[in-house]
């Protein structure tokens, strides 16, 4: 897992850049990509291969894996969902990382968007 993350936030959350996540997708790394945004925003476009897990469905943890790194992302670098999801899901035994900058930075980096 160590070669996947870019840095560690002061609260201990591992974070990954959108470019690093894209490289992991291209290399077909064994990860789960988790979109924390509202379902209607997910439907408009998301990181390729991502599963939708909006806040109201965190209890179900549908699509997550305790055997893989779960890379979560939300709207932007100011969105609190990523950090909150990392804390909650890690507390339940899921290995998690937060994609830095959210979907806003993914799109502005001209990376592929799946619909």
Explain the layout of strands and helices.
Blueprint: E1 7-8, E2 14-16, H1 18-26, E3 31-35, H2 39-44, E4 51-52, E5 69-73, H3 81-91, E6 96-99, H4 102-108
Parallel strand pairs: 2-6, 3-4, 3-5, 5-6
Antiparallel strand pairs: 1-2
The structural domain count equals 1
Task: Catalogue the unreliable spans.
Answer: none
Amount of beta strand:
15-25%
Give the beta-strand count.
6
Q: Biggest sheet, strands in spatial order?
A: 1-2-6-5-3-4
CATH architectural name: 3-Layer(aba) Sandwich
CATH superfamily membership: Rhodanese-like domain
**Biggest sheet character:** 6 strands, mixed
Radius of gyration: 13 Å
Structural class: alpha/beta
Percent helix, as a range, is: 25-40%
Straight-line N-to-C gap: 28 Å
Mean pLDDT over the full residue set? 91
**CATH fold group:** Oxidized Rhodanese, domain 1
Shape: globular
Give a structural overview.
The protein is built from 4 helices and 6 strands; from the N terminus they run ββαβαββαβα. By secondary structure, it is an alpha/beta fold. Strand 5, helix 3 (about 80-90) and strand 6 form a beta-alpha-beta unit. The protein is globular and about 35 Å long. The termini are far apart. The model has no long low-confidence stretch (mean pLDDT about 90).
Short account of what is shown:
The protein is α/β, with parallel strands linked by helices and 115 residues long. It has a single domain (7-108), classed as Oxidized Rhodanese, domain 1 (3-Layer(aba) Sandwich). It has helices at 18-26, 39-44, 81-91, 102-108; strands at 7-8, 14-16, 31-35, 51-52, 69-73, 96-99.
């Amino acid at each position: 897992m160590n070669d996947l993350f870019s840095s560690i936030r002061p609260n201990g959350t591992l974070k990954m850049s959108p470019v690093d996540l894209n490289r992991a997708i291209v290399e077909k790394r064994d990860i789960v990509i988790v979109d924390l945004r509202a379902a209607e925003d997910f439907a408009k476009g998301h990181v390729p291969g991502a599963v939708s897990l909006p806040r109201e469905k965190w209890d179900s943890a549908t699509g997550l894996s305790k055997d893989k790194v779960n890379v979560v992302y939300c709207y932007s670098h100011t969105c609190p969902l990523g950090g909150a999801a990392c804390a909650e899901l890690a507390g339940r035994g899921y290995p998690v990382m937060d994609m830095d900058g959210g979907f806003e930075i993914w799109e502005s980096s001209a990376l592929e968007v799946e619909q």
